[in-house]
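Q: For a teaching session next week I want to show students how multiple molecules come together into a single three-dimensional assembly. I've collected the sequence lines for a complex. Could you give me the predicted structure tokens for the whole thing so I can convert them for display?
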Amino acid sequence: MFYRENGQFKSNYRADMGLFPVAQDRWAILGLLALAFVLVPLMGSDYFFRAIAIPFLILSLAAIGLNILVGYCGQISLGTGAFMAVGAYAAYNLQARIDGMPLLLALLGGGLVSTVFGVLFGIPSLRIRGLYLAVATLAAQFFTDWFTNRVKWVTNDSSSGSVSVGGLDILGYAIQTPVQKYLLCLAFVVVFALLAKNLVRGAIGREWMAMRDMDVAAAVIGIRPVYAKLSAFAVSSFIVGVAGGLWGFVHLGSWEPAAFGIERSFQLLFMIIIGGLGSIAGAFFGAAFIVLLPLLLNYVPHWLGLPISTATATHVEHMIFGALIVFFLIVEPHGLARLWSTARQKLRLWPFPH
Amino acid sequence: MGFFLETVFGGLMAGMLYALVALGFVLIFKASGVFNFAQGAMVLFAALAMARFAEWFPQWLGFSSLLLANLMAFCAAVLCMVGVAWLVERLALRRLVNQEGITLLMATLGITYFLDGAGQLIFGSATYKIDVGMPKDPMIVLENVFEGGLLLSKEDLYAALVAAMLVALLSVFFQKTRTGRALRAVADDHQAAQSIGIPLSRIWVIVWSVGGIVALVAGIIWGSKLGVQFSISLVALKAFPVVILGGLTSVPGAIVGGLVIGVGEKLSEIYLGPFLGGGIENWFAYVLALAFLLVRPQGLFGDKIIDRV
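A: Of course. Below is the structure for the complete assembly, covering every listed component.
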């Protein structure tokens, strides 16, 4: 009834190829953006921004990057934490070593360095596939762990091994309060999500999906595997690198190599599996799920008034987390995005049965 | 020269320990097609069960013989692992029968988290001791050939012997018994095995139980070496390059891969480490496996990957 496309005709090809062909979708997205840019900053508390909104935004950006690699191109990667680390440390080095380096350029520069790194560690994907590639990408993860720990140049010869960033500002506007940080991350996420969505709708996105579905057949019809796979690695590690830079600069402020360990890689992989492989919206759903779940699990015993020790709470949290993941994989292997798109399909017909 | 041989021996022993954990991976992958990320958590769970039951049985039943306590704890731990296998098959595997590899991988990752939490909740999260009578003192051999002799760890030697016996036992099980034949049939082709009447769900419970028992043996050895603590589940991360190097579907591959990785790691730490700043043990195994895969993508003894269009 509300979601009908009756009367919505397109009069030129450009409108036909638009991102949101249904007018209700367009309004909904505009409404969401208005909510995110205007309403939330007015209503949210500092805790909400620091603990929920900013991690959610940055992790969903990283999840978009990983989804491009795993969901659209089918190359399983367990080394995402490493790419985030490279982005963060490169951005830090660019900012610390070059005087007057603007924040945006530092973050994007970190993303570029992460691209080079990603392409390098993506070269094995030309020869190895599937589970073997997943384990091979762990090499990137552990190598980066060691590299950021041992090579003093990376941390600007810091004695404690951890680096810290302070005094962020863009063109004179300071980025100090949680609201300002939130708006910065939101801007990045919106721009990159738009870029990613258009990439996967285009020719390169179709090449990626062909590689995912059957790479031998794709090569037979003329898609160059080298170009497709390495471009997926490049784009994915650029986005993940920028997300890493944001994580370090905006969310953490000061960090050490352990912040980007293998736990982070698994967390991102969980996000895109639960959110939905091969879907940009899925990255957001997954990130929301993963960010909110530990908070919920921590607060529910509180609200119910059950006294549990912290250690027990952590163990129960792990158990529930693991059980929920298995449950989700059984119930909806294509993730929350599939649930959402099924709901939308049903909504198009509502209240009629067919 | 003496030092080099010591390093090589040490690497071979460490490699056998990795191979023990890798064996569990290979068994489960062969028969159910699932890359069991949870193997490390299973090792931890099994080791915790063994350590705690060995503590609790004397307390509950009031005897003090260490041997009896260990035996009863071993039986109890085996029962625990069979229980875990049954639960995993019933609740997870049965519902995920035809899913893609990455879904199954993620499911085992979820099982890892679950087992980590459950094991530490049930059995406790402190560091526990396993005492199965492994000798802790080192031994010195070949004193007349090399000056001072070569220092070998008796514990590692016993571990290597246990691993070798386990592999021999498993080979006999697979080749000579009916259940072993059924397992091999399921590993070859699920559908064909089902169509001749082999009950897939029971086979999977058996396979995961065997994987659990292998994890228990690995857990006992690692636990008596390092003490049973959470970091044991990270040993599985070391076993991945072993499995990859040897080939995901090959038991001798797991052993050979383990030996190669073990020796490679130790030698690289001693001889390459000083140039690169030390501490390269963590990633060298992976880079070695990666370099090997570029030459032979299916691992040493793995099944050749055939692409069908």
